[in-house]
Amino acid sequence: MMHQEQDVLVAPNEDDLGTAIESSGGKSDGLAVVLQGLQRSFGSQIVLNGINLTVASGETLAVLGRSGTGKSVLLKLIIGLQKPDSGSILIQGQEITGLPLDALNEIRKKMGFLFQQAALYDSLTVEQNVAFPLQRHTKMTSFEQATRVQELLASVGMEGHLRKMPSDLSGGMQKRVGLARALALKPAILLLDEPTAGLDPITSGEIDELILKLQEEHDTASIVVTHDLHSAKTIADRIALLHDGNVLIEGSFKELEKSGDKFVLEFLKRDS
């Protein structure tokens, strides 16, 4: 929906959320994630001020914004690590904001999370890190787990590093292992927090290519929080730019480039 005065594609309001899927190019019949009126404050600081967003199955949404604009907070709300002050979070049609912990944990099994620093367990090998969710949440035999881990590590190009410890891996390799672990339970939704942060341009490009490959193979709904505009342009179907607690603009990269909003143009200029 275009803003009449500034020619900005703004976020859909609650009445428009049902039609927001049109911008995904018809890639899915349903919405995997629906956020309505999402608000979160820390003391007097308003971080998110009524966020409305949707993500369809098979679609990748990149969330951009300056530091401190609530991008990582948004992911933590979706996964249930934090609770919103108000608003609604629907995961595959199910409201999660008021769920007890056991029910929330069942929903979490549908979501894979790549933490900003990969967050691998230092005392576990690569193989053990990837196997961890399988041990906790499935009834797979040891052989089945080992087979699944080998498949996952092969899918991210890490099949030759099963016995290594996280301290033996580069930052890019840790991100690959983190992606493998995030995919262990075959999630319908993938949440990626700064997947290229701290990586050199070549490694960042490799991670982008891996995300695109995995997206094509698994057809997940993905939300990628990033400072890396080039990465967002490469991997995302849609981009949402957060500013002052709101989604200032939402659309394809080309639509953002056509915006007449001063902040949008400045953001694209500084991050290009």
Tell me about this structure:
This protein has helices at 71-79, 101-108, 126-137, 142-155, 171-182, 201-218, 229-235, 253-257, 262-271; strands spanning 31-42, 45-56, 60-65, 86-91, 94-95, 111-114, 189-193, 221-225, 238-243, 246-251. The protein has a domain at 14-110 and 187-271: P-loop containing nucleotide triphosphate hydrolases (Rossmann fold), CATH 3.40.50.300. The strands form 2 sheets. Strands 6-7-8-3-9-10 form a 6-stranded mixed beta sheet, with helices on both faces. The chain has a 4-stranded antiparallel beta sheet with strand order 2-1-4-5, covered by helices on one side. Helix 3 (126-137) packs across helix 4 (142-155) and helix 4 (142-155) crosses helix 5 (171-182). It is of the alpha/beta class. Helices cover 35% and strands 24% of the residues. Residues 1-29 have low confidence and may be disordered.
Mind telling me which CATH architecture of the domain at 14-110 and 187-271 this is?
A: 3-Layer(aba) Sandwich
**Quaternary structure of the protein:** single chain
CATH topology of the domain at 14-110 and 187-271: Rossmann fold
CATH top level assignment of the domain at 14-110 and 187-271: Alpha Beta
- Proportion of residues in extended strands: 15-25%
Low-confidence stretches: 1-29
CATH superfamily of the domain at 14-110 and 187-271: P-loop containing nucleotide triphosphate hydrolases
Number of strands: 10
- Rg, rounded, reads 19 Å
Q: What's the helix-strand series? A: EEEHEEHEHHHEHEHEEHH
Largest sheet: 6 strands, mixed
Main sheet: strand order: 6-7-8-3-9-10
Mean pLDDT: 86
